[in-house]
User: What shape does this take?
Amino acid sequence: MINVCHLYPDLLNLYGDRGNIIAVKRRCQWRGIPVSVLEVSLNDDVDFMEQDFVFIGGGSDREQNLIAADLLKRKKELIKAIENGLVILAICGGYQLLGKYYLAGDGEKIPGLGIMDFYTRSGDKRLVGNVAVEIDIEGFKLKAAGFENHSGQTYLGNCKPLGKVLAGNGNNGKDGLEGARYKNVFCSYLHGPLLPKNARLTDYLINLAIKRRCMNIALDPLEADIEDQACLAMLGRLGFGKITN
Amino acid sequence: MKLKLFAAILAGKTVFWLSRLRGNKGTSLPGLVARKFYGDSLRVLAAQVRKEIIVVSGTNGKTTTCNMIVGMLMDAGYDTIANREGANMITGVTTSFILSADMGGNIDCDYAVLEVDEASMPKVLAEVTPSVVVLTNFFRDQLDRYWELDKIIRVIRDALSTLKRATLVLNADDPLVSQFSDNKLLPSVFYGLGKHQRCIKTNSQTREAKFCPYCGEQLIYDYFHYGQLGKYRCPNCYFERPDPFVEVLETVTTKKGMECRLIYDNKDVLLNIRARGLYNVYNAMAALSVGLRLGVDVDIVLESLGKYRTVTGRMESYVYHDKPAFLILVKNPTGFNEAIATLAAAEGAKDVFIAINDNEADGLDISWLWDVDFELLGEESSSYLCFICSGQRGEEIALRLKYAGIPPGKITIDRNIKTAIGNALSGRAGSTYLFTTYTALWPVHKIIKRLATEEIADDQCLSSVSGLAESVRRPR
Ligand SMILES: [Zn+2]
Assistant: This one.
């Protein structure tokens, strides 16, 4: 049984973010692994240690601030679970929340959870468009495709990126980096949504979740024909013809 | 000035006929060209409207509401100008006047009914002075085209503040719309849907307007209709759903559409509409409110609404070798969900064609496909024989269908729109449904018209499908 936890789906659901939940759910179910999905909103009870995969998406400023306040109350518990290897996927606004702070256009510094070493400043130009990224998965280079739409520009401190930008902007449009990673926490600006057409990444996350539960089962391979076609269609348009090197 | 206007009209009309010859609809280019020749074209022509100008804006239902208003004004015997579907920016509005003008620069009409894109309100209101402004609702639309809702609302507020005299016709059920009644200068008339059989108590789909526009407190709802539409109040200040002047209390779905019990001004009447979906009840109420405000005889209004038919591109019926085929334009999750509900409700086996493009006019970002409830099709996948996926993002919609639970064996990707449509039409099922996004509609249209015969169907009304929008808000 895989416990999937969707944080604040009622407040943060932009750009088909729920597709990420659907992807994890389906790829487990197709392998005969049962999945339960828990939707958590403000003030709801949740025990992060019990969860296997946590997803948090993005929202506009008003929701972000409410959520930051709610998450702050859960910070200790969340850190404990992260150190324990909890798999988290945080997209866009959810990504920003895990960092140190968000510097708004008017100079206001909105604190984040400070779980990871990066900060975000509001940019004057929105970074919008299709993106190709190269992600390193344990030495294995994987090309992923998605769509970004953010005005926040994120700068990493002592923190690994999720991948290198091949086309598009990524974290800030300047340093060629996309997303962030710490332990099993994966952060990215890529909507699309990210997981469905990047099936190898999805399977990697599922694998990590299973390993944390000490379940020594190898994932059955699944055909990923349509997934690969969807990813390749975008990679090809951006000038990259292969998913793996 | 006369000469410049003459040049503008001549150029605009010429461009229109040229683009018509090439098979384009030519809806905004004539206006654009005319404005290059004479920047005041619209201002000068619009000033000649004899009675009044009505502007309709908001996210969903603009086109249908405008068409309903035009229908009732024509039925009441008035000459009326209106802009074409989708041509709702300042160039499109200009086009409608250029095409209606004679070569002497004269406009001969009683009313003008203008559909205006939310973001174009400032520009249009700077040149056109309406006496009635209808605001339908505010939902998130693709944000690479639109801005944040808060920003849109601010822009419309500023645009309205330039008007000296006008009546606002507002949807009472949408807190994002009803807040406009705080405009001290402009009187407001509300329309709304009362508590009916199918109201829902909670609504997880509500993404906007959870908060009071005045004090920021979370709004409390007695019930919802859909989205953020419903009966709301702020626990902290005086803000609440205003009492509507026009209110529908009961709705019954009939074979041809809906029958509604409608109260206005303490009178109880029966409103029939030949379309389904609550969206259309709202559109009809908005149109009726405008009719009453303009003093059109209420019997004419009700009769006109009762015979209102859907317009091209909404849901067109065709026949291919005795097999019915339906073409539906989809642009956002709400509209696509409506269309899927129609598809799921239709009897017998079905073949399905979906073309998704990601050009500017479709929205560059197609993530919204993941917000559409294709799972409804996946649960009943035995009713569907094939899904043929086409368009620039055919692979992505194929992927979406796979993850909605449709067996991959039933999904085909064919980038060639011609063979894709041919195969969908000649599939083994009893009927074919074709869905396309905006820029794929016209190529699909051309191909299907060549292959199949168009039918003017009687009770296939789905005017809401393309007019609806609920998708994304801007993340930071
Ligand atoms: Zn309030």
Residues 457-475 of chain B have pLDDT under 50 and may be disordered. Residues 2-21 of chain B form the longest helix (20 residues). Chain B is about 35% helix and 20% strand.
